Structure formats: C-alpha cells, structure tokens
Amino acid sequence: MVGMKTCDYLVIGGGIVGLTTALELKKRHRNAKIVVLEKEKELALHGSGRNSGVLHAGFYYAADSLRARFTRDGNARWKQFVLERGLKINPCGKLVVAKNEQEVEGLYELKRRGDVNGVETYLISLEEAKKIEPRVKSTQMVLWSPSTATVDPRECMAAVASDCQSEGIEIRLDSPYQGRRGNDVIAPQDVYSAGFVVNAAGLHADRVAHDFGVGLRYRILPFKGLYVYGSEPAGSLKTNIYPVPDLRSTFLGVHFTVTVDGQAKIGPTAIPAFWRENYQGLKGFDALEALSILRDEAILFFRNDFNFRGIALEEIKKYSQAYLVSQASALLEGVKPENYRTWGRPGIRAQLYDHQDKRLVMDFMIEGNHQGLHVLNAISPAWTAAMPFAEYVADRAEQLQGGQEVGSGRA
C-alpha cells in the first residue's frame, strides 16, 4: 500500500551529488526533514561508484568556469575528509606529457590555467620527470601536478552515507522516481509531498527535470568509459600520467591512472553509448530511449560539430584492448599488451546535450523554479567537485525558495 509522506527537502538521486547536497542542506537547516530517494537497492552502483577515483587538481578548466573553482576547492575538501576519517588515499600526483613538439604549447596553456585558478603546477624537464616516474615519455618538458591524488570512490561514498544517517537524513533505497502527481513525487512505496525538490538523478536528471517543465532544450547523452587493468605489481607505476588534452573537448584522452592501492590502469574510453545504462549486453535496454539517443548522436555525427564524428570513430576503436594499450604506450616506456588484459567495471558519463544549439554543455548547469532545482549537468570531474558544488546547489535552492527565479546555474 502506497503511503503519503511529507518532507522539507526531497533529493532525487543518491549519488555523490545528491548525498553531499543533502548534507549541505541539513547543515544550513538543522530542523529540516530531508529524504533522499535512490532507485537502486544499494548505493554507488552508477557513476559515484564507477569513476576513476582521481581527485583532480583543477588546472584543465578556463578560470571563469564553475569546473575550475569547484575542482580546486573540492580536491582540498576531499583530502581533509579522507584524512579525518582514516580512509585510503594515494597522493601520487600527475604528470602531463607532450607526445610531440606541437603539444608543448598545450603544456604552457595548462600551466597558465593552473596559475590563474590558483592550482599548484610546475613545468619541469623530462629529466626531472623521470625522477618521479623513470618510465615516462615526453618531448622537452612535462607538467607536474603534486596535488592530484586517488581515493576509493565506494569507500568514500559509504562514509558520506554514514554522515547522512548520523545527521538524520533518510536514505530510501530501492525507491526510483516514478513521476509527479500535482506537486507530489511518486515512488514505489510512498508519495512525497516536499517543500522543495532537488533533482540529482545523474543519467536520468533530464527526464525528471522535463516532468517539472525545466530544461526542455537539454537531454543527457551517455558515454561509456572503460579501463583495462595492469598485472604489474602494485607500485610499479609511481604517478598518474596523462596526455595533453584537446581543450575544446570534455574528454582528457587515454591515460594511466594509479589506483588508491597502487595498481595501474589504462583508459578511459568515451564511447557513445546507445542507452543510459548501457554497461554490458542488453541489460537495461530501452528501445524508445535508444532511438532518442541514437537520433541525437546521428545529428552530431553528420553535423560534425567539435569533430564529434572523429571522436566517435576513434573511441569505438578502443573496444580493442590492443588498440587502447598502443595509445597509452606513447606515454610510458615498457608497456606490454600482455600486461593489460583485464577490463574493469564500465562506467557511463552523463553528458548534457543542448539539442537546440546542437552542442555538448561544457560546464556544470542547474536550473529551477520555486518547486525545485535540477542538476542537469554534473560534468566530470563531478566527483572531485562534489562538496563545493553542493554548497552552490544549496545557495541556489535558497534563492529559489525565496522567490527568486534562476534561469541557469552556469557561470
């Protein structure tokens, strides 16, 4: 029997954005009743438990972007969080390498962005870089980011959920959003009458927002991320090694990540997925959803804005382990295909697509009205940025509750 429940804040989505936002709202409104709806039977089954675990430093992004500010501040906040709770962290840093002379200018641009964003980075010689990682390959120089680190996302999610429960926040598992009835939100077991709704539904955030009449020009496009794990002993690779990225794209290119346990992995891919939870096989397949996503991807493919066609064709090649490893071998000496045979759990990136302007949205975006606030684009590195982003979401929620319309949360 479906019951009727009331709460001050209803958060849809129990990922890292939903949980940190719930905590921030509770911090500001101690007497508020806050409920988080999570559609799965346990936490961290999607992006919040399948991401790389890298705490990015924040030097990739333009200084006027939300990504730059939230990533820089989020890096420091996570480090404080894991230290206070005795969680695992690998303070391994990151080397960004130039594969050829043309990419050296990209290193200078990353250094400039880091300086403007207040992020510690150093341009060092290849000889200096080899003191950090003897096998690194580069041309002329390397960018060193000492503040980059890796954590265990699932361990961190469990700790954040524990904080939520300690604060009296109710996390309802196995409770997917099923729609609206007037101003009420329907879940399988209960109908919720909420003072204010926060939509942090990740891959499904656009669907929820559209039910509220918000963000109608936007849709989520899913991209599949795959990693292949190395079999070399833990500690064989000392630091994360990344290429100079194409700064016009939201993807950072194939790289080496050192996990919190010291294991090396190569990836990720950014392969256009055919449905939102297209992890493996036909599990979760939805024909109507697939048709909608394929339509948007086809438009991008044939228009070829921001070289989408080239990106898609290149990414599809990365279903081959041999090809993925060969791409990574440009960054590191002694990379042997036989040492990289084990696929990790795939992840799906929820990337917002503006179907009016036919472009990918490259920064965090929230929209809302007096009924609720919708996190339409929790763009990578949303994991690193989660804590300061939650403060930003709570700020906007308070503005909307005060009667101020916010058309867009973009910087």
Structure description:
This protein is an alpha+beta fold. It has a domain at 1-53 and 152-217 and 361-411: FAD/NAD(P)-binding domain (3-Layer(bba) Sandwich), CATH 3.50.50.60. The protein is built from 11 helices and 23 strands. It has helices at 16-28, 47-50, 66-85, 104-117, 126-132, 153-166, 205-211, 287-303, 308-316, 321-328, 382-401, and strands spanning 3-12, 34-37, 54-55, 89-90, 94-97, 122-125, 141-145, 149-151, 170-172, 179-181, 184-186, 190-199, 218-225, 228-230, 240-243, 255-258, 264-267, 271-272, 340-343, 347-354, 359-360, 365-369, 372-377. Strands 1, 2, 9, 10, 11, 12, 22 and 23 form an 8-stranded mixed β-sheet that branches. It has a 4-stranded mixed β-sheet with strand order 6-7-5-15. A 4-stranded antiparallel β-sheet has the order 18-13-20-21. Helix 8 packs across helix 9. It is globular. The N and C termini lie far apart (45 Å). Mean pLDDT is 94; it is low at 403-411.
